[in-house]
């Protein structure tokens, strides 16, 4: 029985793994702290994880730096009232990049349970919760101990059939593994090159099979999603990427930014690079729609390319820096920068066609989510001890 509906957002990049809202969803183009706000909830702690929606719950991963506690908090989808909060671990926080958080990985759900991934005590831990917030099982997934660059953990898990796929790349441990949803037992595992990387694994149906895609470590790599067996890899990109692979037709797209900058399209059978350029989308993922690739670069420049040829259709300078990933709702794209400014524009390959520009809070690191004709936006205001996070539900009144 499928316990997930079209009105749910089940994991990082959404139920279809592409950051595109379900067909028929419409959301407001304009909002503010008072305009088109259905509800606003205070969020305990700090995190860049995006919201996950299942049934009547909105779920966030979060971390409290003062107490070094990581956990999951759930809000009532209709009212925004906090339903429950459950701690997963305490202590063992590593040093991280000032932009990162100890709760940057988005949760995932199969409709029965909620799954969250955190890094602490030089390891990655996976926890499964029931919909009431009770921990069903926990699993030490594997080591994670960056040495050269102590920037922290960021990779979100992805669900494939009856498994949760989790990855962790560093210069001391590097692996990708699948854990059975029912009990956390290991279904398969693969070791990876000892290089630091932050990209999230994602599953795509390409060339007649389900491929698990991972960018970074100077390549795009494909694995059999059911067994973990390596399928192909294409040398490209750079050592470290943070964005998640996207795809259309027989091409896979990714971008990276450390130490080099490159956006690339590779063929989904591993036969090589189709095209590339030197645009840098480091922390954010890109978006592909109807034969065109859209990117919001680190420098705050929007690009539209022909997905097959790489031809630049247009570019528009807005304002960076950028960490969150653009969202497509219908034929409209929502792109947010780190200051919490969201530009709304048509997915028009002929020209940049802006509809609206919105400001909410002072922070825009978590990616927007759109289901059931509403937007969910995680933002924050203030700095240091005065910093406060909020979750907004935006909808027509």
Summarize the structure.
By secondary structure, the protein is an all-beta fold.
Overall description:
Helices cover 0% and strands 47% of the residues. The chain has a single domain (37-395), classed as Methylamine Dehydrogenase, Chain H (7 Propeller). By secondary structure, the protein is an all-beta fold. Strand 10 and strand 11 (163-169) form a beta hairpin. A four-stranded antiparallel beta sheet has the order 1-32-31-30, with no helix packed on it. It has a four-stranded antiparallel beta sheet with strand order 2-3-4-5, with no helix packed on it. Strands 6-7-8-9 form a four-stranded antiparallel beta sheet, with no helix packed on it.
Layout: helices, strands, pairs:
Layout (H helix, E strand, L loop, with lengths): L36 E7 L8 E3 L2 E8 L4 E8 L5 E9 L17 E2 L3 E8 L2 E8 L4 E9 L14 E3 L2 E7 L4 E7 L5 E6 L10 E5 L2 E7 L3 E6 L5 E6 L10 E3 L2 E6 L5 E6 L5 E5 L9 E3 L2 E5 L4 E6 L5 E6 L9 E3 L2 E5 L4 E6 L7 E6 L9 E3 L2 E8 L6 E8 L2
Antiparallel strand pairs: 1-32, 2-3, 3-4, 4-5, 6-7, 7-8, 8-9, 10-11, 11-12, 12-13, 14-15, 15-16, 16-17, 18-19, 19-20, 20-21, 22-23, 23-24, 24-25, 26-27, 27-28, 28-29, 30-31, 31-32
